[in-house]
Amino acid sequence: MPVCVVIGAQWGDEGKGAMVDLLAKEADIVVRFQGGANAGHTIIYQERPLALHLIPAGIAHDHTICVIGNGVVVDPQALLNEMEQLRSVGLVVSPERLKISDRAHLTLPYHRILDAAREMAGSHLRLGTTRRGVGPTYVDKVDRVGLRVGDLRYPNRLEEKLLINWEQKRAFFNALPPEERPDFHAVLDELMRYAEFLQPYIADTVSWLNEQVAAGKRVLLEGAQGTGLDVDFGTYPFVTSSNTTAGGAATGSGIPPTKINAVLGIAKAYTTRVGEGPFPTELQGEEQVALREKGREYGATTGRPRRCGWFDAVLVRYAAMVNGFTALALTKLDVLSYFPEVKLCVAYRWRGEVLTHFPSEVCVLEEAEPIYETLPGWDVPLGQCRSWDQLPANAQRFVERLQEVVGVPIATISVGPEREAVFSLPNAPSLW
Ligand code: IMP
């Protein structure tokens, strides 16, 4: 049963794209199963960074078939832009190589307006969303008024469904200044145009994927965002609107949990977060700036500077528990070079108590103070290391201690963005 899930162990931006790109060499199929155009997965293609938002990171390998699963929310305009961008660098994006689930929900042009309006409304909690309309699309899905990719195949039904969705938002539209108010017929026409383009890519991916699994094909399920942003397990309400954890891989692809045999967690050697929400190990001032600049920590989708801090083992241990990680990939270890000391947060202190479990309440996390273990740093660059033996002793010690406090075997380490800068550890558990 060669089905493997790749999950972010922190708050997203752990380097999942690069890892999936690498693993895709050995995969037949790569599937995105949740999220939407809010994701930003960067891979290096022809020596240049290429940011993917909706299309799985496996697309850079000619032999892989990519699937946008039923759990994803698809913004057709963002998808078409991305297809164009990939074609412009010489990649083939054909219906043979990309299948879009007929059950995936559509992000409509006005979902972005709703997302932005919610963020700007003074009475609402500001979440710092990517404003890609992802939250409002999932709201419509759960409210059972959403439009699905498969609806693009039936124009008459599409109009009826759009009308139901539209009516529900009429009061909101009427409150907008006239020049910002969307027009029903313009939206319908836009959807009809997308229908023409996307028709050949639409498929019953649930049945197709299960046939491929039964035939023994290697399937990689590519998570977006990270465990801390999961709508159930993350720092609610400062989360995204989908299940970013391993359970979401089953519901978002239609591949049953009993067919999944490995879950690889991806964790950065430190922690970052974009948008609002608690972050116990966040650094302040110059220390934060130093880590951000060294790690080039700016959002791939929005360009926002990421908040940065030390590695939080409480969070990653929790991620290992809820996802059932069978192994961990540790990324961007090279960024920690030249810090005189490196730190691991092993527990939190909260109102005199020591917490070793990740709390469910934001108000507890906001007050939680990290309890650190401090280890000696290393003052050599790691970018050229290509094996465990080539790492300086203090870097090895940091990795070994991190593995101990998280309790999951580390299979892989990355020390740079290129494919060659990722290497396996001696006795690493095999993924497939
Ligand atoms: P939304 O997913 O756009 O609704 O944003 C909700 C929260 O998730 C915000 O804090 C975003 O910054 C965060 N978020 C969404 N997508 C990503 C991602 O791909 N990487 C990191 N953070 C993300």
- Roughly what is the average pLDDT, rounded to an integer? 96
Radius of gyration of CA atoms, rounded to a whole number: 22 Å
Q: Into which percent range does the helicity of residues fall?
A: 25-40%
Shape: globular
How far the N terminus sits from the C terminus, by CA atoms, comes to 8 Å
- Tell me the number of strands: 20
Residue stretches low in confidence (pLDDT < 50, at least 5 long) are none
User: Structural class of the helices, strands and pairings?
Assistant: alpha/beta
What is the number of helices? Answer: 13
Bound molecules: inosinic acid
Strand content is 15-25%
Strand order of the largest sheet: 9-7-5-2-10-1-11-15-19-20
Largest sheet: 10 strands, mixed
Could you describe the 3D structure shown?
The protein has 432 residues and is α/β, with parallel strands linked by helices. The protein has helices spanning 16-23, 76-88, 109-120, 134-142, 155-168, 170-174, 184-198, 205-214, 246-251, 285-295, 313-323, 362-367, 393-406, and strands at residues 3-8, 29-32, 41-45, 48-52, 65-68, 73-74, 98-101, 105-106, 202-203, 219-222, 262-268, 271-273, 307-309, 311-312, 327-331, 341-350, 353-355, 369-376, 410-414, 422-424. The strands form 5 sheets. The protein has a 10-stranded mixed sheet with strand order 9-7-5-2-10-1-11-15-19-20, sandwiched between helices. Strands 14, 16, 17 and 18 form a 4-stranded mixed sheet that branches. The mean pLDDT is 96. The structure holds inosinic acid. Inosinic acid (IMP) binds next to helix 4.
